Amino acid sequence: MNAYEDGLLRTPANHQPMTPISFLERAARVHPDHPAIIHGTFRCSYRQMWDDCRRLASALDGQGIGRGDTVAVMLSNTPPMILAHYGVPMANGAVLLSLNTRLDPAMLAFQLDHAQVGLVIVDREFSAVMAEALAMTHNRPIVVDFDDPEYPDDAPVPKGAGIGTLDFAEFLASGDPEFAYALPQDEWDAITLNYTSGTTGNPKGVVYHHRGAALMCLSNTIHAQMGRHPVYLWTLPMFHCNGWCYPWTLSVQAGTHVCLRWVRAGAIYQAIADHGVTHLCGAPIVMSTLLSCPADQKRALPHRVNFNTAAAPPPEPVLLAMAQEGFDVTHVYGLTETYGPSVVNDWNSDWDSRSASEQAALKARQGVSYLSLSDLAVLDPETMQPVPADGTTLGEVMMRGNIVMKGYLKNPQATEQAFAGGWFHSGDLGVIHPDGYVQLKDRSKDIIISGGENISSIEVEEALYRHPSVALCAVVAMPDPKWGERPCAFVELRAGQPGDEAALIAHCRDLLAGYKLPARIVFQELPKTSTGKIQKFMLRQRAALIAQGQ
Amino acid sequence: MNAYEDGLLRTPANHQPMTPISFLERAARVHPDHPAIIHGTFRCSYRQMWDDCRRLASALDGQGIGRGDTVAVMLSNTPPMILAHYGVPMANGAVLLSLNTRLDPAMLAFQLDHAQVGLVIVDREFSAVMAEALAMTHNRPIVVDFDDPEYPDDAPVPKGAGIGTLDFAEFLASGDPEFAYALPQDEWDAITLNYTSGTTGNPKGVVYHHRGAALMCLSNTIHAQMGRHPVYLWTLPMFHCNGWCYPWTLSVQAGTHVCLRWVRAGAIYQAIADHGVTHLCGAPIVMSTLLSCPADQKRALPHRVNFNTAAAPPPEPVLLAMAQEGFDVTHVYGLTETYGPSVVNDWNSDWDSRSASEQAALKARQGVSYLSLSDLAVLDPETMQPVPADGTTLGEVMMRGNIVMKGYLKNPQATEQAFAGGWFHSGDLGVIHPDGYVQLKDRSKDIIISGGENISSIEVEEALYRHPSVALCAVVAMPDPKWGERPCAFVELRAGQPGDEAALIAHCRDLLAGYKLPARIVFQELPKTSTGKIQKFMLRQRAALIAQGQ
């Protein structure tokens, strides 16, 4: 033992579990009067937010929620969703599960059961689907209704009936703001649970820990160039990788959350102009929405706005149009398993002098590791050796570091596979360029990304296979100007069966959430390899031609 | 055990030791051609810097430096000093000791022996004192001379002779840039050693770990509002708390280090203008230096410059003058034991509308915890209970969190005392204001006890600073036969101002209770440490002699 290890131990004075909760504690102490949340006519200061988080933790404690219990939320980007990111772990160390609000009842029921959810908070926009889901669960969580006072009377989606035994506002008010809230016992403690869309079989429950969440807060702040008091508009769903950890990140610089129930171009421009929004994130669909905004709904931007986008590389015309509109677009990449973005297209000022198309090509690359990711590499998954940095040799994108998940809940086999060889296997294929920037070449081949949501082609195929006329099928991504991608199905029919596109889509509608339905169904023989494997890459090319009307 | 703990273990894929070395790795990969270091006519890119750090690690390895060995440097703010911050720990996990270049031979010898230094790199500015020190050590380190090619021929301090067996340039060139450098095995591994100035007895060796250093990098970047590619001027000695961790911090945003051997006003203005400096740090003496710069040596600043200052609260006239010169001053506070600044006077925008004197009073407070410090409190050291947040009740300032040292090297008793009760005891006395901001009132040993009443030396100093003729002052206890102690003030006058003891005491009478008035005011230059801190213990000795009529 050397002298530097002799007796110099971790003690409470020099070692404390990292947690994003401490950033909110600090923001409330330093900037108590600064606006923390804006939602319609609702305003909340950091003092109030901190009190409310402690009230929520206290109210959950009152319902018997304890360490390692799961609290689910089925909420839009509204104030309770932000509070839940702090209040749930502060309730004796419970874990937050943010349900994807677009899921069908069966999938919701699976997640509620798998995570053994003890209490669920449901926005009345989703009470009907949640009621169906709860009817299917074995588990019986306590249900709390959130009746949003800001819900517009003339909303495109009418508000459903209450289905719970408790009302969120009363529930919150019942909590004690002086509650002795929990900080993690260990920074490795779980903070949230996020289910992947699941390419095969059931979705996997990705567990985040406090350490990773806290490091994401610091890294996001630096990568997104957030100065003092950023104003952040919630165009990215908070149920998606915990909104890339921004519900916690904003506390670092005491920023203001601007809530948004529905992503509509006019509302985005209005929020930016009214509240001086500095940052927002979203899938390419959000950029399309902005760019197709009718002129009479547009508002002048108060300053240049930082837009972080992921899911698909932004194409040149979109980048140019966004720049012209006043948005500085940064391309990031990550997975549910990496807390959202763990790779960033860090801009090199040497590239400023390149042509617009060269710049777009450079920006289309996924990029380099986030500050808190130790390693990003493209490896041959057989040998675990790096592929040459030549921009052409394909390998699997792998990561390791402190913003990789704790593992999959109750799924040791999947966890072991994901971490085989000491790296997290992204399942995405890519190349590494001579300058060290990584570029994806094939999203893990079965996934379709529509409006920022992952759709498993296998899930759609399974639905199709349930129809008696389907002999063989394959679903691939078809480019879509609005959604980025939509599923396109190729089907071989059983002998003598008619090909009825409308009937097959109607059949799928009974089995799948609306956004997962095939945009097109094409009846043809499927191209196969000599060993009988369907050649999806050929179908992808065909789908692209169909999308172009050819 | 709950499901979130079942089998979800730390693995190399999801848990890596945090270390600032990874920030340099990343900067060199992402911005290889960006300027990393400027020193006179010397330029070095991030690619070159990364190669040189690996060369240094390799060369140290070649000299048998291993894990837990100490490598000392006696260097100015020059390129080898920056390289050493990375290259030493990269050498099999060795530990860097930066020697205070203003120490006397006996103190240097003590530190070289206590830390069992295996190799020391010495700038030829300091070869004479180091030769004396080495003659006194029991330990016989390998000595490497650094002969700075940028050392001016007409330097005020002539360069000494070489005293080593190796030359730094050759030593570095002998290293292999492909060396298999070390990352820490554990983030709790030591990275550096810094001796406190030690007002009584032998200095204590403060051990920093990789975890704390890495967190300081992220926190410094955010608190100092460092955007992409900051340009940092080295007016703070890097031997002082590892330059508040800025040698590592700059790598986070791939910033440029601008070296400076001697802190001279003209050179500072020139560097800012020539290189577009965005940030610098320093003791109040650096602000005085800047403000007293002759007009013909001044250069126009290219933009507003961020100046972080510590050690003493910046007085109102200095803040106003600095703002007029184009510097945004942030007041930070910390100790060697907290990696430099762990407390920051985070500015509240509500204060913008206050008067200049109110703003100065608010800025004179030390402030709130750094992002990576879990807790900052003012506690009664007897009961360990918080004092009321009333801005008047005195207690001891205490900290806990991840930017508190690992402990004191080979000094378990001092470590235990420092961490008693689960908090780091700063030894500084202060109050906490109703808004949670902490303000120092005194070092515990600097309190003057007169007739049983505590007198804060800082309060008396603040009164003196309000007089226009006072440039710098320090108040200490003077033995008094009747009262036990009384304040004795030492004052440096502004150029051309007369020293009028009676007038100054009359001025204080308007601001202070009678028992707090200085018994004597002595006009003289104040003794300062190498980092610009006033050496009150010397003044205390002087005051004792004065009291004896000597």
Automatic annotation (TrEMBL), chains A, B:
Entry keyword Cell inner membrane: no
Top-rank taxon, per record: Bacteria
Pfam family, one: AMP-binding_C
Every AMP-dependent synthetase/ligase domain range: 24-409
Keywords for this protein: Fatty acid metabolism, Ligase, Lipid metabolism
InterPro entries: AMP-bd_C (IPR025110), AMP-bd_C_sf (IPR045851), AMP-binding_CS (IPR020845), AMP-dep_synth/lig_dom (IPR000873), ANL_N_sf (IPR042099)
Family indicated by similarity: Belongs to the ATP-dependent AMP-binding enzyme family.
Protein name: Acyl-CoA synthetase
Organism encoding this protein: Paracoccus fistulariae
